[in-house]
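Model it.
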Amino acid sequence: MPSLLLVKTSSLGDVIHALPVLSDLARARPDWKVHWVVEEAFACLPGLHPFTHKIVPVALRRWRRAPWRAEHRREWAALRARLDALQPDRVLDLQGLLKSALLCRLAGGEHHGYDWQSAREPLASLFYDVRHRVPREQHAVVRNRCLAALAMDCDAGAPCDYGLHDSCVAARAAEPGAAPLAVLLHGTSRDDKLWPPTHWVRLGQTLAQRGLQCLLPAGNAGEAQRAAILAEHIPGARCLPPGPLAALLPVLAGARLAVGVDTGLTHLATAFGLPTVAVFTATDPAATGVFGSAAAVNLGGIGRCPMPAEVLGELERLGAC
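Modeled.
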């Protein structure tokens, strides 16, 4: 049985944007096995898609902090041995970075990736056996699907499918009778992408009045502190402490709706098919917005901060509250 090794290590949103590639391959190449090299923090994600065969976790983020530690050298050697044992027929670098191209070369097989004009880091293209031209101005999901279609000689024209529907249904069925949940994804990597606390409070109070319980996840201590402040002003709100991504998956998948800033978890809510409103204040949703779901909406943009009433209006239009 032929096999393909995908390389898409990080970040959270980037890994989610690559999931539709698996759905495309499941339709067009059902006789292939697909493996995935991914950063250890996100290793739970490819396994949510039924077409993933083997997951190969890497720890580049951890290793680069102390590359000469004996433990890290052993882990690197184990990674090389595991990739060598897979013996894939083709290797596809969906990331287009030097680090992903180097990982790509650790495995045997025919290496595919973006050409010089298409790669995020053009030097990465030098490491591939076969290079493909994919316009850079397209959304990341479209770029991933186009590159995979070129590498595997198949079609990427079907509707976008993240392949996580069964996971979402199972999580919702696990809590019968529970209050509907609204997940407020307030944390992000850049301060200029944050939504004002007063806006979160106003939205949360309205959702609480309509019988939803607001959940406030946190990825670090700073986000946990902000979540606690918001929860003080939103009736019935519950803070979720920082923890592994895997612990948040069933919570998010089982929610009634999600509202989030420009962050990977907002894209994950979209992948689960939840009614999702993405709030943008400093980035362009045409390039990084939620994508591929009729239940997902982008609001705002560079220099334009949406108001709570706009978010609520979209949630009502989607039938979420």
